[in-house]
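Margin note: ligand = magnesium ion.
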Amino acid sequence: MGGPRALRSRRSNLAVPGSSPKMLDKAKGLAADQVFLDIEDAVAPLAKPEARKNIVAALNEGGYDGKVRTVRVNDLTTQWTYRDVIEVVEGAGPNLDAIMLPKVQTAEQVVWLDLLLTQIEQTMGFEAGRIGIEAQIENALGLTNVDAIAAASPRVETIIFGPADFMASINMKSLIVGEQPTGYDVGDAYHYILMRILMAARAYDRQAIDGPYLQIKDVDGFRRVANRSAALGFDGKWVLHPGQLDAANEVYSPRQEDYDHAELILDAYDWYTSEAGGKRGAAMLGDEMIDEASRKMALVVAAKGRAAGMVRTSTWTPPES
Ligand code: GLV
Ligand code: MG
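Resulting structure:
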């Protein structure tokens, strides 16, 4: 339902606890594509009312330029969600891009948030429908409903894997989030979950985002786990510590050579299919045969590269006739 919203680069999604004005401020200067200011699991129950206020102040003060600004509210099994949304969106709506809803279990929960956002926008005179929704899938029921969740509102921009809560939800036996559970040696325990989320995201033009890697000092481990979801097609991953930022931005960007090659394919195919190029639907680019499917793959890589601000380092010229 609903057309795709503008594609925003979300290679790195930095978690920032709303209870810490210092961290809210520090995040403004870090190279994250997205910040999500948390009122959920990184904030103790007694600190939640204050976290809402800190977040509103930090957003309205500005400084997150160029970043997607998201706030993670508490999930709908708690008493806090409605106040989180109302206080944050009424207080800082124009300076906020999306609300992240954790532990989403049904499409109805997304519809609830969509309707509440619409009411707040109307009451406050904010632009209708501008604030997006990020849906975190963190338990078995959420995963079984993920297609309906992705389709539940045109505001949905991302579907996010929450591995820590998910492992708890399905009783997975593991010590390190994202790594193979101890004793598990047949394939990849996370493959099914990642693919399920990815299919739902792609079916409805949403972004697919991988969750956190908790061993924040082990950047090689972060890279290993990130490479796995990036290879499948995920758009980005959570970052819990600034030390993980560079790895995320790198892993979820195309390599320079792949980006250059994608732009070359687009230019070459555009020319070959034209009158001047002979109206050909299949043609050779060096030793590679390209056709409409090559163009589609190239469009994906080029879009990721452009969204990440990459600059091409080669140009294509039509062959001499
Ligand atoms: C993130 O919220 C997770 O549970 O992994
Ligand atoms: Mg979680």
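The chain has two domains: 12-251, 256-307.
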